[in-house]
Structures are given as structure tokens and as C-alpha cells.
Design goal:
63 residues; mainly alpha; 3 helices; 52% helix
Length: 63
């Protein structure tokens, strides 16, 4: 597992300078998951939220 992590870290470092867009997070926030189902639905990224984030990142706008 440590070898995989080191390999991925080297890949990220090598790719950092060649990126065309800023790094963005299209996932759940780095925080504890809420207990109630209503808040959990707002917390967890669904398909629409991920698609919108990717479209915004590549400059196409969601549509």
C-alpha cells in the first residue's frame, strides 16, 4: 500500500506543473458525516453536483 501511495504522490507532483486548470474537489467535504438523513443528502456529492463541478472546471457551464 505504501508503494502505491508513493507512486501516486510522484504522479501528482509530476502532473502539477502541466495542469490546465486549478485543482478542485468534487466530493463530499472533509468533515464528519451528519447523522440525520436530510443533512446527509446535502453533504454527500451526487451525480448532478459532480457533473456541475466538472463542467464549471472545464469552463463549459452545466447544461
Amino acid at each position: 500500500m505504501a508503494d502505491v501511495m508513493r507512486t501516486r504522490s510522484r504522479e501528482r507532483e509530476a502532473a502539477f506543473d502541466s495542469r490546465d486548470a486549478p485543482i478542485a474537489r468534487a466530493a463530499a467535504p472533509f468533515a464528519p458525516v451528519p447523522v440525520t438523513s436530510v443533512l446527509e443528502k446535502l453533504f454527500v456529492s451526487g451525480k448532478d453536483r459532480i457533473v456541475n463541478a466538472v463542467c464549471e472546471l472545464v469552463g463549459r457551464g452545466a447544461g
